[in-house]
Amino acid sequence: RSSYSCCYFVLPCCFFDFHGKYSRRQSKKTQYREYLDFVAQVGFICGFHVEEDCLRIPSTKRVSFIGRSRSYAAAECAVIDQQITQFINSRRTCAVATCDRRVGFNHKDHCGGLCKEAGSEPPEDETGTAGTIWMPGFQPREKAEQIRNCASLPRDFVDEVVLNVANLLLNAAPQKSCSDKQGGNMNTWNQGESLSLREVAGHLNKETLKKLKSEYGGLQTLLKNNHQVFEVLNGRVHIRDWRKEKPPSKTKPEVKRRLSAEAFKTRLCWFFIHHPDGCSLPSEACPYAHGTEELR
């Protein structure tokens, strides 16, 4: 609707309508194919010659649509814009009815113009201002999307939380000690106890929890981001024992094995610095640097 000369490319992924999640209406098609048909239908109703293409990308959802030309003359823009407004209103009616579960609609694959559904006629005030209002209550996303996956938190704050949680697990009773029996070495390495996320959160101060609550996933996301130190399984937090990690597969192509080997020693080993027993692995086997002199 931005201009007659507008072209578009879209790669449909998540199943969403204009007002929420897309609701299936045909059982004879897969959910993906039905959603693709819906996205194509939007293009047709907006007056485009819609072309379908399959991208050569490593994804299961790689069908795209391209609108490079219009199916109507520039003089018909006002009529098509009114048609688009009616279609948006019909989809809004569908969204409300789906929530209520009281009204059933009969959708067609491509209605060639408008969905002939109950309530598809737009209010008069919305028809008259179709060129200036895209849809009532529409709120575009901010230009600068805020990153809220704990990645933008201050490094010193993250390090403090990691250290506090690790000490909590190490000092929890009863302690778990893992023996390294390889080569006859019976030295024990304290892996600590596992605790639920709720228990861990209960030991953190209110200021820390408040800061984490503003992030998506909160404490769990922060701990998962620190993969070197923690393992989060079924809502429980464990200290990671790198002796139990599977070694790199020898069946990998040479190029991939070389790239993974070159990624070693680019960060300091947290266990070498902070764990009371040091790192569970010898320096040559640890993917992290035991001291700054080993950093690549």
Number of helices, counting only DSSP H or I runs of 4 residues or more = 9
Give the spatial strand order of the biggest sheet. 1-3-2
Helix content: 25-40%
What is the CA-atom radius of gyration, in angstroms?
28 Å
Tell me, briefly, the overall form: elongated
What separation lies between the terminal Cα atoms? 53 Å
Mean pLDDT: 80
Question: What does this molecule look like?
Answer:
The protein has 2 domains: 8-95, no CATH class; 155-171 and 191-294, no CATH class. The protein is built from 9 helices and 8 strands. It is an alpha+beta fold and 296 residues long. The chain has a 3-stranded antiparallel β-sheet, covered by helices on one side. Keywords: Cytoplasm, Metal-binding, Methyltransferase, S-adenosyl-L-methionine, Transferase, tRNA processing, Zinc, Zinc-finger. It comes from Nicator chloris.
